[in-house]
Amino acid sequence: MQLIYKFLLLFFxxxxxxxxxxxxxxELGQVQYQEIVRLPDAKRPAKQIMEQAREWGEEHYGSIxxxxxxxxxxxxxxxxxxxxxxxxxxxxxxxxxxxxYGRYRATLTDLIAENNGLNVPIQATSPTAExxxxxxGGNATSKDVIEQTVQQQTELYQQLDKACxxxxxxxxxxxxxx
Length: 178
Fold this sequence. Notes:
Elements: H1 2-15, E1 33-38, H2 46-61, E2 68-72, E3 77-86, E4 89-100, E5 103-115, E6 118-121, H3 129-135, H4 143-176
Antiparallel strand pairs: 1-5, 2-3, 3-4, 4-5, 5-6
């Protein structure tokens, strides 16, 4: 009997060995990447910043047919809806660019993973093996299947984190260059 307890303990502890990826969240707990950037030219007008942001958007997303840009001239806000192709699935997102005098705020939100017709919002942390085991109602027959799923989700979250940060870095580089 004691051997069974040791086996179960080892079984569940080995699930924890895979690192959980945590993504940045807003005050509501939703995944959100946000940067407020003060530009070197502190007197640059918001309209000029928006023109540069729109040019960046055309260069960055111009060849992607599924990307959509919407400009709100009344509030001087640019909305870009696009997606990252990551491991045979798409992760859709919305990028909002809000320029002000000498600075701008860029916010990446609404991250949703699409795979084979299934749409799942990206959570703040990648799932653990324990969470997947519980979600399966304890009916998961193979530890290997759960560990493989955890590994795939961990890789997805890692690649998504890199892609989001790279998008914001690309925008920052385009707007801070003279």
